[in-house]
Amino acid sequence: MRDARPSVTVTFDGEEYDAFAGESVMDAARRLGVPIPSLCYLEGLSLYGGCRVCVVQIAEDHRLRPACATTVAQDMEIKTDTPLLRAHRKAIIEMLFAEGNHVCAVCVSNGKCELQDMAVATGMDHVRFDYQAPQREVDASHPKYVFDPNRCILCTRCVRVCDEIEGAHVWDVAFRGADAELVAELGKPWGESTSCTWCGKCVAVCPTGAMAYQGKAVGEMQHHANVVIRLATARTKGQWLDPEEVG
Amino acid sequence: MTDARTARGSTRAGSPTRRAEDSHPSGDDRYLVIDKHLKRARFSQDQLIETLHVAQDVFGFLDESILVYVARALRLPPSMVYGVATFYQLFTFDPPGDHTCTVCTGTACFVKGADDIVAQVGEAFSIGAGDTTADGTLTLKTARCLGSCGLAPVVLLDGAVHGRENADEVLAALTRIMEAEPAEPVGAAAEGGEG
Which of A24, A225, B23, B60 has an alpha carbon within 20 to 30 A of B170's alpha carbon? Predict the structure, then answer.
């Protein structure tokens, strides 16, 4: 499909590419097939920039930039895979594992988890930080879905999809810092929420096993985060993509 | 003449419109203060934090019904209102005690021994910073900076500024205040602490 937007030349790891002026490094990379890892970023949702897994280096700039929140510029030299970036990404994944209770062996998403995949991809074989082992109660009050805050990484994908695509805004992040947690309405059990439409988009986009369908056993939960691409395209462009193609 | 004016005045005072403005449908007229602010803010959604401040000033604290009230008035999702209210330290969900002791723990006050004041007051009343005594007489709070660093360490007792304090003086003043007058109504105490 032709696109009339003005383009800029950028290099990803030494190779030249044409990117659209104004788009983010992440969007350009995705479109051009350059792999940049990410967790909170999801095409079709607004920008959050919270996970910092997508950091890239720009030329000799010592600051790491989140690819999702950095706009491409002419002659930008982007490095997506350097020892420094690998070390940072690995440390971030380690911190995520230390912060919650991520026990893959008993998780519904075992084998189908973006956090787990990221740990494998970054070669995270142990955690150097102390496990926080927080005490968090599982919310199984909803008739169709389960929320397990122990597996939540606060990527806010569910918050954004519920607000922007479904329009219900059941979820939000409450409290702050180490106490931050995902809440439904005023911190109520999910099942008591009157604004939830039971649409399940929050479950679909969850990168971990934090949100799952009721009754799923270990490794049985398959998420469908790409559903957002279809819905967002339909909403913004009035085009309905093939589910088989997009997911 | 006089009779006519009086008659007109009394009619106006007794008109249904006037009565509706003077009381809130919920039966709690403190909501009128929130309504007044909301109207002045033209129910603009970005007035959420200000509205919560006003609500906390009149109620002394925030609870679920207040958050729901504000959320509905501003047409905001309850989870967002809850998220904002829980994010900021200045919002409290516990009713404050009859008296409040706010110790500034900003840099200057800290250097001048604010932590010692917090510790000693806390010990004397067996409460930690941010807590209220079991009998509800005193709330011990800390503040980041009150903007009066020249008076460090600064302590607010029921909203009144006390500068260049030490733990003994604060304890003495607290005892004086708590013995002196009966408990102030929650709203009045909160308004005194404003700013």
Answer: B60
* Dihedral, B155, B158, B161, B165 alpha carbons, nearest 10: -30
CATH number at residue A210: 3.30.70.20
Q: Is residue A214 part of a domain?
A: yes
CATH of the domain at A50: 3.10.20.740
Residues A211 and A110 in one domain: yes
Mean pLDDT of A59-86: 94
Choose one of A81, A110, A144: the last residue of a domain.
A81
Q: Count of A–B CB contacts within 8 Å? A: 41
Instruction: Output helix, strand, coil percentages for chain A, rounded to the nearest 5.
Output: 30, 15, 50
Q: Could you report the per-residue pLDDT of B94-114, keeping only the tens digit for each?
A: 888 899 999 999 999 999 999
A197 touches chain B (CB under 8 A): no
Q: What is the ipTM of this complex?
A: 0.90
Classify residue B149 as exposed, middle or buried by CB count within 10 Å of its CB (0-12, 13-18, 19+).
Answer: middle
Q: Is the dihedral of CA B121, B124, B128, B131 positive or negative?
A: negative
Please check whether residues A14 and A64 belong to one and the same domain.
yes
> Which tens digits make up the pLDDT trace of B38-56?
999 999 999 999 999 999 9
Domains of chain B are 12-87 (no CATH), 99-190 (3.40.30.10)
Is residue A108 located within the same domain as residue A226? yes
Number of domains in chain A: 2
Answer whether A193's CB lies under 8 Å from A184's CB: yes
- B78 interaction partners in chain A (CB closer than 8 Å): 185-186, 195
**Rg of the Cα atoms in chain B:** 21
Q: How far apart are the first and last CA of chain A?
A: 20
Asked if B82's CB is within 8 angstroms of A174's CB, the reply is yes
CA angle at A221 for the pair A113 and A117, rounded to the nearest 5°:
10
The reported pLDDT for the residue numbered B184 is: 53
pTM attached to this predicted model: 0.83
